[in-house]
Design brief:
There is one protein chain. By secondary structure, the protein is of the alpha/beta class. Helix content is 43%, strand content 14%. It has six helices and five strands; from the N terminus they run H-E-H-E-H-E-H-E-H-E-H. The chain has a five-stranded parallel β-sheet. Strand 4, helix 5 and strand 5 form a beta-alpha-beta unit. The termini are far apart. About 7% of the residues have low confidence.
Length: 138
């Protein structure tokens, strides 16, 4: 009897789960969805004027202040995914929200929809303002 292939059900299940987890982790590291701290986010926006700053907060939140030149598409809106369809998937997107949760979720949806370069602001606009960065109001 060959002991190498003598796995019980639970050992095989563990091996499969570990393999899938490693594969997902490897795929995730090659993604161009990345969280950036305030300093890096600001530098990237400044050095890529063709990039799109995307605010995924509600219109009420945006009215209180937003990053200069930001486009607003509310992640909580039922029209979020429809609105994404009108965007150029080949452009670079700098996505932010209030604290970073919605922007991470929005970026994941964008990656699923075929957007190539999506970056999120770690800590959201709260981190941005805490770092003394400028916001504008309409």
């Amino acid at each position: 009897e060959c002991l190498i292939f003598n796995f019980n059900f639970y050992q095989m299940k563990t091996i499969i789960l570990l393999s899938v987890t490693l594969l997902m982790a490897a795929c995730g590291t090659s993604s161009s969805q990345e969280r950036m701290n305030v300093t890096k986010f600001q530098k990237e926006i400044a050095s890529h004027p063709d990039g799109v700053v995307l605010d995924v907060r509600t219109p009420e939140e945006v009215a209180k202040g937003h990053l200069k030149g930001a486009v607003n598409i509310d992640y909580k809106s039922s029209a979020f995914e429809t609105s994404l369809a009108s965007l150029d998937k080949s452009k670079t997107y700098y996505v932010y929200c209030a604290a970073g949760v919605r922007s991470d979720k929005a970026a994941a949806v964008m990656k699923e929809k075929g957007f190539k370069n999506v970056y999120t602001l770690e800590g959201g606009i709260q981190a941005w303002t805490a770092a003394g960065q400028e916001v504008v109001k309409n």
